[in-house]
Amino acid sequence: MLNKIILMGRLTRDPELRRTGSGTAVTSFSLAVDRDFKSQGGDKETDFIDIVAWRSTAEFVSKYFTKGRMAVVEGRLQIRDWTDKDGGKRRSAEVVADNVYFGDSRRDGGSDYASAPAYGTPASDRGYAAPMGGQSDFAEIGEEDGELPF
Question: Following CA atoms 105, 75, 131, 135 in sequence, which dihedral angle do they give, to the nearest 10 degrees?
Answer without folding.
Answer: -30
